[in-house]
Amino acid sequence: MGKRNGETKKESAQEPHGQTYPRPPWVPHSVSTEDDLCPDCFKVVGERSRYKLVCILGKSDGGLTVGALTAEMKLRQPTVTYHLQVLRSVDAVAYTREGRECIYTLNRNAHCFEECKIPY
Ligand SMILES: [Zn+2]
After folding, report:
1. Surrounding residues of ion ligand 1, Cβ less than 5 A
2. Mind listing the pLDDT tens digit for each residue in 22-40?
3. How far is CA 55 from the centre of its chain?
4. What is the whole-number distance in angstroms between the Cα of residue 99 and the centre of ligand 1?
5. pTM of the entire structure?
């Protein structure tokens, strides 16, 4: 799916304090304790839509289907699916299959939310 800048390296998983990224402007200063984000966390909120996705999922208790997320995000479904895949790649979301639907939930135990305190 197109080029993915800087998303090919995996070997830094054991070493979270390597490269950091500045906190994106759309992540509110009031709720973020970090000014620098590790690569995994930057993957989660480094894109405005992805951060919004995290916020929406963070507010829902039982999780949401891709359809519901698509309606909420006002994006095309393949775009939402792509963002969900990126979130899954760093374990930030989990999903369960119910019939033909996938229900996505935020994985609050994920590194980003527990250790790096990504706000949502
Ligand atoms: Zn992190």
Report:
1. 38, 40-41, 116
2. 989 898 876 556 678 889 9
3. 9
4. 34
5. 0.78
